[in-house]
Amino acid sequence: MKLLGQEKLRSLMQVALSHSSADQTEVNIRTGNSALTRFANSTIHQNMGFENYSVGVRAVFGKKIASGSGNDISEQGIRDLVDKVIAIARHQDENPDFVSLPEPVERIPQVESYSQATDDMTAEDRANAVRQIVIESDRIGGTAAGSYNKNVHEHGVMNSLGVDSYYQGTSARLTCVVTGPDGGFGYAQAHGVDSSHIQPGAIGAEASARAYESRNPIDAPPGDYECILLPYAVCDMLYDLRYAGMGAMSYQEGHSFMCGKMGQKIVSEKVSIWDDGRDPRTIATPFDGEGIAKQHVDIFKNGVASGVLYGSYTAHREGKKSTGHSGGINLVMGPGDATIPEMIASTKRGIMMTRFHYANITHLMTAAVSGMTRDGTFLIEDGKIISPVKNLRFNQSIVEALANVQMVGKDLVLDDGILAPAIKTSKFTFLSGTAF
Amino acid sequence: MTDSIDVKHFCEKVLDRAKALGADYADIRIVRRDNESINLRTGKVEYLDQSSSYGFGVRALIDGAWGFACSPSVSDEAGERIAGEAVNIARASARVKVKDVKLAPVEVHEGSFKTDWKIDPFDVPLDEKIGYLRDADEVLRQDAKVKVTDSFMEFYKFNQVFASTEGAYIEQKKVESGAGISATAIEGSEVQTRSYPGSFGGDYSAVGYEFVQSLELIEHAEQTAREAVALLDAPVCPAGPNTLILQGSILALQVHESCGHPIELDRVFGMESSFAGTSFLTPEKLNCFRYGSEAVNITADATLPGGLGSFYFDDEGVPGQRFNVVEEGIFKGYLSSRETAIQLGQHSTGAMRADNWNRMPIIRMTNINLLPGDWSFDELIADTPDGIYAADIKSWSIDDKRLNFLFGTEIAWEIKDGSLGRILKNPIYSGMTPEFWGSCDAVCGEDDWHLYGIPNCGKGEPAQLAHVGHGVAPARFNNVRMEGAK
User: Chain B: nearest CA to A187, how far in angstroms?
Assistant: First the structure.
């Protein structure tokens, strides 16, 4: 299914706006197609192509707001959706905190969000990529699992106050777990707007090498260790940290790890983390779900708690302007100057982990998470990796881990939309082990 | 489903097209899904939304490999095109395979089926629903230390047709209703939340609005808020080994994570290994592995009235079933599909489900239930000299084979000399699955047994949220590792 294009989307959104009798109206339309090839045991076992439309409408009467959505983009379908949303909005309670839908504040920037190569990728192309990974896993006597996803989409937002935003975007992500002989596991992935930059053979080789190196893991006793988190693990950690209070709502309600600490240095000065939807190294997205341009927002600047992310509703509660964060994040952690071998060489007794598994917040105000390591965990002593270890359970405050950062890697990796380097922290708490 | 097309004729044309293009097997699902969500946050209606989705998906098997394609346009043009795409994708899949997919045989069914509900929740006026939540929310906010409240309702209506090249044609209709409340008390850096009737999205049942009325949210709001405030000044739950009695939604979660997921046969065969993980319950353990103590009896039951994991037929046309998963502590059965069951020489246990028309079905939980024992709750507490009684989910994590877990609960009470004592905050316990269930020495009876409905079990790529159920009664576990709060 081909994208409808800006003019068609705009004409459909105008149908909604012109039909609405609400004080304010907002309409969102997304269309697109995507595909996902999943493989396991070195076999493609699920292979899917998707196409869909979605239409979302918000209607406002004074301080009464309601929303509705559907996937019928015929003109009559859109008019019916508007009528439905208006009907439920009239039955709404007033929300005294609501001020207004957003007004356009600046021109939507151009971002590098579309790749023809990604758009053109076929099921055969994905199968060939999987075959290259299987060749690499076969070299170590392993089996390969993972997925190759492509996404092609367009998004338009208009509202009755003049917001009129549109963009087209693509993304491609290849993930791979190789199960090696003798209990070894390895993970690697690549993510980007342009699939032509993804090298399946290299991804397969990286995962296979880690699976080979992690064979015959030993038990490591629980306790506090120095810890090297490879970039994938740092991306996982930042993914969890955003749930602990990077958004303005949790900050305003008093349950964010940032509460009472804004302007204070709460993590290492080596740590700078920001959100920037315009950064072409991420999956760039020029505007948010309200059609407002995404701003660069510093979360930590040289260790100092610097800001949280606003949509129009939370911004208006503080008399501020939206930062363009009504949905969607593009987190980036700034690079340092260290290499991973330098981190290993500087470690007296530590753990190096590849990534998190199933981590969840255990304490909001300290941003503590518990989860497991997986797909390559190693014990370091006296500056050298001495053995792979079985997976470990950690329970660790992310803020504390970032406060104890001693080294930051110079190479950034984009994993699941988050761009981050490796880090070394002086203390990470592991509670227990498991059987593999 | 729609007046504009002959659904049966459309299905036949799509399936005929797939066969003509070379499919050895194909099926089609057409789904209309309606949803309504209402959420009051701290006294304000923050979210009021009605959504609907309609479309179809085609699964084709060619040369021993699968392809799936879907579209929101239920039209002859789209039907022909999507059948072709599914076939083309399947041919691409066949380029990377170790062995062919084979399907366990299934009896072909035709018919129309519908769950029972008394009050269609979509017919209840919005004013009435919002008013009910507003009244509960006002009670939640009576103590000034309660800074954040949530009161919510959610309703689903599913209308689905399944047809296959083997001749199946099954229409199913289902309504689901759910609601819940929570209060978050905040004082300085201390944040504590209590929820009712469950802490991971309230509670749901596959019936109508009468379920929401039965929850008595307003009547439970005062205690919910009072406990949240009491937790602010409560002592921290002590670390170290202890006797633990689990209640309510946390026990449902324990069953979900440490039993429901590891018995999914696709995980066992490594099909989810790169994402959600695999399972420690490997096939050689079937019928001989001691999963838990003799007090532990667990079923998978897709036939329970009102269960979110109940259905007449799964998304391969296999009837919903009830079977033993754990019998007196011994592991007895898997949740399976036609493709996985045949690898064990079995028939499918009917667990293939997709969360909408645009997703390929995968193995999902039905209602995974810890069967009741013969203790009363009062007897269980009286029989426990020292211990912890913990309720409702706060945090959860488990390794990718479903062995090493750590769960936090919203609240606990000290048990001393057979009586419930003071409230304890930040309870966290951990363990290894077979050892933990092996330490279970008592399960309460039918009077304390409740079937929880959970509408948000995540699995698969792209992510799918399954609606599942867990029936549990309070149960006691010995020598459990309690972690100190971080």
Answer: 8
Q: What's the gap between Cα A105 and its chain centre?
A: 26
Q: How far is B378 from chain A (nearest CA, A)?
A: 30
Instruction: Give the model confidence (pLDDT) of B356-391 as tens digits.
Output: 999 999 999 999 999 999 999 999 999 999 999 999
Residues of A in contact with B65 (CB under 8 A): 44, 47
Determine, for residues B269 and A93 on separate chains, whether the beta-carbon distance falls below 8 Å: no
Cis-peptide into B235, omega within 30 deg: no
> Encoding tokens for residue A270?
């080596």
Structure token digits, residue B258: 């440490």
Mutate which: A47, A92, A134, A243, vs B, most B CBs within 10 A: A47
Reference B387, options B301, B471, B475; nearest CA is: B475
- Please check whether residue A74 touches B, CB under 8 A: no
Give me the residue label for tokens 């598994």: A357
Contact B428 A362 (CB under 8 A): yes
Suggest the residue from A356, A358, A375 to mutate for an interface test with chain B (most B CBs closer than 10 A): A358
Q: At how many degrees (to 10) do helices A123-139 and A200-213 cross?
A: 30
Closest residue in chain A to residue B433, using alpha carbons only: A434
pLDDT of A348-371, one tens digit each?
A: 999 999 999 999 999 999 999 999
Query: B87, B112, B78: which is closest to B8 by C-alpha?
Result: B112
A99 reaches B (C-beta below 8 A): no
* Contact A186/B at CB under 8 A: no
Residues above pLDDT 70, as percent of chain B = 99
The answer to whether residue A297 neighbours chain B at the CB level (below 8 Å) is no
What is the rounded CA–CA span in Å between residue B26 and residue B86?
Answer: 9
Residue A226 has a CB neighbour count (10 Å cut-off) of 20
Q: What is the largest CA-CA distance in chain B?
A: 74
What's the CA gap between B454 and B466, in Å, rounded?
A: 8
State the Cα–Cα distance between residues A64 and A96, nearest whole angstrom: 9
**Distances from the Cα of B157 to the Cα of A71, B54, B211, B441, angstroms:** 16, 12, 15, 40
Q: Is A223 on the interface with B (CB under 8 A)?
A: no
Full-model pTM: 0.97
Cross-chain residue pair A51–B72, CB shorter than 8 Å: yes
Give the count of beta carbons closer than 10 Å to the beta carbon of residue B278.
Answer: 24
Answer whether A362 sits within 8 Å of B399, measured CB to CB: no
Q: Which residues pair with B233 in a beta bridge?
A: none
Which residue in the block uniquely carries the two structure tokens 């959100």? A275
CB-based contact, A243 to chain B, within 8 Å: no
Task: Tell me which residue has tokens 């209990």.
Answer: A183
Taking the C-alpha atoms of residue B143 and residue B221, their distance in angstroms, rounded to an integer, is 11
**A142 CB near a chain B CB, below 8 Å?**
no
User: Radius of gyration of chain B from Cα atoms?
Assistant: 24
- State how far the alpha carbon of B182 is from the alpha carbons of A79, A182, A368, A403, B200, in Å: 36, 48, 22, 33, 10
Written as six digits, the tokens of A227 are: 């810890």
C-alpha angle B448/B454/B458, rounded to 5°?
140
φ/ψ (deg, to 5) at B113: -135, 150
Q: Please state, in angstroms and rounded to a whole number, the distance separating the CA atoms of residues A130 and A142.
A: 14
Contacts with A147 from chain B: Cβ below 8 Å: 274-275, 461
| CA distances, A45 to each of A417, B24, B68, B337 (Å) | 25, 16, 11, 13
Picking from A123, A149, A374, the nearest residue to B88 by CB comes out as A123
Cα A315 from Cα A310, distance rounded (Å): 5
Residue range B406-430, pLDDT digits in tens: 999 999 999 999 999 999 999 999 9
